Fold each of these.
Amino acid sequence: MTDLTFSDETNPPDPKYVEQLVAKELFDMDHREREAVMEELHGVRSLTVTENPAEELQYLQALQEELNNISNTDELKRPFLQAMAMGSEFIHTRDFRIKFLR
């Protein structure tokens, strides 16, 4: 998979470039993988796996530990702290955190 990171958020990439990149990534997939991605994209089926509740709890606890380990002055934690300052309880919900982990 091609790394698609941009250092300058005020100057996003050309949409045609992104379209070509997506087309290349789809072309490089085997038929089954490409078909599964297209079916999920169009809502025909989901590629998500059914989690084991015990494993799910373990992953949620590990996420919380990692959040606790990141310094509040670290740039990586800034969006999380901003959401907390706005009173967003959503970021603490199980469903949100599971989606984040996926």
Amino acid sequence: IDFPGCLVPHFKYQENDEHIYNVHPEKCCGGCCVSANICTGKGTLYMPFYFHDPNTKAVIGGEYDDPSTPQIRKLWAGFAKECCTSADNFAVTFPPGVD
């Protein structure tokens, strides 16, 4: 795990010591914060972590805010579950070509 920004989690995925993806949410404020949108629920009801090319830093397979773009989303499970358990819900859309 790598935290290049002040408050933004950033994960590196590797296979056989080869850097395949960076996985992190969309950032703002010079990379120090996660970009949120209260109107759509991004950053409040769900948090999308997008797959990025490690060399170009571009989003793989789409663009930010497109639900069909490959991503890992932590989903809001409701007040009771979020408050009273440590369980988390995720939705995963993989990049093209992943076996």
Amino acid sequence: PPAWVDAEGDSCDEYSEQDLCTAWGSYGSGWKADWGSFDDYWNDGHTAITACCACGGGGERIGLVDFNRDCKDKQGWSDKDGDTCGSYADDGWCTADGRYGWGWHEEW
């Protein structure tokens, strides 16, 4: 979501600027182990990995020249079955670079 902040008020921009996460949904070089997990900062139905483009989440990309830069968070998106970007990320249905993830089933 465009205005998403975590439980302590940190925005997606802060996650990106402080290298708190990677575009593949992992912890970045700025994340301190004693902070716990992304789940500890869950807010408004999301963690950084489901809400922030810089962390592998988000929902809309306006181009592919620079995949991460061109990512724009899209609030309220869901597919025809009601699955959200968070569902896709959590279940491994896609990758941060827009390909099918480990959880995707070809018969879908």
